[in-house]
UniProtKB/TrEMBL annotation:
The keyword Mitochondrion does not apply. This is Alpha/beta hydrolase. Residues 68-313 form the AB hydrolase-1 domain. Keywords: Hydrolase, Signal. Residues 1-22 form the signal peptide. The lineage of its organism: Bacteria, Pseudomonadati, Bacteroidota, Sphingobacteriia, Sphingobacteriales. GO terms for molecular function: hydrolase activity. PANTHER family: HYDROLASE, PUTATIVE (AFU_ORTHOLOGUE AFUA_2G14860)-RELATED, MONOACYLGLYCEROL LIPASE. Transmembrane segments: none annotated.
Length: 327
């Protein structure tokens, strides 16, 4: 019997090592991560630092309709996970702009004071540089918070606001314990490939091997010599989310808005700091989506059954049909 359990332990260790071997060391600026389209850079100066904002600018592949869609990624992602959405939109006649926000993806990772107002201003600068006067914006997760802030600041530049399982539908400061940047930084430094894998599993209702590519990107930077900088930026952007709620401002939106909500989503920023009882109460997207739609005058909501935090990956076809139809 002891030999049996020993063999099981060896097998599990071997499986764990197999996962680890699949995760390559990545640059914190993801130069060795394949993006679906060519990357361009917008130069920016902030707090005495010269930095650059990466973005993809993809032309329509047929029947150009003269319209543009901008895609804002979530906190734990970059433009690399939008490939299927870009292909569908450009195939439907749209020009698609996909920035990596400063602090994320291929963009610079400066140690600065991050705010949604500043990120929104940089995205406006990108539009100005490209000569784009109006755009529809699809924001996922943290990108939904940023898209909301952008629409509040620059409503004249937004045709439609499209929010895919945005975070910020509740004010985290009212129930998540406050943390200093240093405390959050120490938590970020403790991440491991397996802890990241478990976190990403919470995004989906059913885990598929294909999702391992997301884990590989998020975990690969851990092995970089520059990981401490990456972790500090992650802590600073966590504080940006915590300190910059939009939950009480949805009623101020003046642009046509559509929410796309995977009803099984339970994402909460700072969830690990909550009690088990609190985890049951908060992060209930099946309620948060509807409640938010009520706040936004004239908005619409599209809900997806058996879907978690990332509809454009978990139920790609269903999501794209809804997205294109909404545009």
């Amino acid at each position: 019997m002891k030999k049996f359990f020993f063999l099981i332990a060896i097998a599990l260790l071997s499986l764990s090592n197999t996962y680890a071997q699949k995760i390559d060391t990545l640059s914190v600026n993801l130069e060795n991560v394949k993006y679906p389209y060519q990357i361009n850079y917008l130069p920016i100066t902030v707090e005495g630092q010269d930095i650059k904002m990466a973005y993809m600018d993809v032309a329509p592949t047929k029947f150009p309709n003269g319209r543009t869609v901008m895609l804002f990624h979530g906190k734990n992602f970059g433009g690399y996970y939008w490939g299927n959405v870009i292909k569908a939109l450009t195939g439907s006649g749209f020009r698609v702009i996909v920035p990596d926000q400063i602090g994320f993806g291929r963009s610079s990772k400066p140690i600065i004071n991050y705010t949604f107002q500043q990120l929104a201003a940089w995205n406006k600068k990108l539009l100005d540089t490209l000569g784009i006067q109006k755009t529809s914006i699809l924001g996922h997760s943290m990108g939904g918070m940023l898209a909301t802030r952008f629409a509040l600041m620059f409503p004249e530049r937004v045709d439609k606001l499209l929010l895919e399982n945005p975070i910020g539908l509740e004010d985290y400061k009212t129930f998540v314990p406050a943390s200093t940047v240093e405390e959050q930084y120490q938590r970020e430094l403790k991440n491991t490939p397996e802890s990241i894998r478990q976190y990403y599993r919470s995004y989906f209702t059913y885990w598929k091997p294909d999702y391992e590519t997301l884990v590989n990107v998020a975990a690969g930077v851990i092995y970089s010599a520059d990981f401490p900088r990456y972790a500090k930026v992650a802590a600073l952007t966590y504080k940006m989310i915590y300190d910059g709620p939009v939950a009480d401002e949805f009623q101020n939106l003046k642009v046509p808005t559509i929410l796309f909500i995977g009803k099984e989503d339970r994402t909460i920023i700072g969830k690990a700091l909550l009690t088990d009882d609190q985890k049951v109460i908060y992060g209930q997207y099946k309620f948060l989506g509807k409640n938010t739609a009520v706040k936004i005058k004239g908005s619409k909501i599209v809900e997806f059954e058996a879907c978690g935090h990332i509809p454009h990956i978990e139920i790609t076809t269903e999501f794209l049909v809804a997205l294109i139809g909404s545009l």
